[in-house]
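Aim 2 progress update. The chain analyzed this quarter is reproduced below.
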Amino acid sequence: GTDNTDEQLATIENAIAAAITSRRLAPARVAAAATRVLTLARSLTPTIDSSKSDSDTPSENGLPEEAVVWEGDVAAVGRAFDVSAYAKEWLGEHGGGRYSVVRIDTVANIAVGTAPWGPFAEVEADPASPWAAAFSANPAVLFTEDDHPDLVLAAQSPVLVIGRDNHRHAFARAAIDRLRAERERVLVVDMGWPSDDRSYADIATFGASRLVGRALLELLGRRS
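Predicted structure tokens:
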């Protein structure tokens, strides 16, 4: 069900990511499950594009299930984002332009390591797409709990910070606080489940799958 705590959701996410990394779970099975959920969502939500026929399923169009990203799904996911007024202003100024990226990896799991997620997974899967190419052209910093706190200051303004469950990790909160204090125009994206006050989530995506990452890249790639 959906009545889960932050800790429970993080445990589920970490377990799935670890199973994929250790090859105990095939990515295609996860993609197939996601496809079934999205198909159910399309059947229940009239605002989602329903023009695709049954023949558009991954297994019948010859494409690997984990490689399929439907445009209708991307649009629907993007509409579910919680975007603050500040984020809209930031996107209006810097969307489609140049900025520094700080990726905060909060998954403290040796088996998971720094496996791609969100927009980083989309860039790895489809680096030639316009959205991915524009995003990956920006200077980036990977920051984890084991890194020196000064590392985040390698990012120059404007700054885009992307993490998961930012409010739940002291090192992530400290890094974001420092960037906000010492850099101008810092936009924080939470691709996990944000706190109710959205203190560390100017944009909340409520997920970090490749599909959600694609929707975020499209949002970042255009001026609001």
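The two ends are 34 Å apart (CA to CA). The mean pLDDT is 82. These observations will guide the mutagenesis experiments scheduled for the next reporting period.
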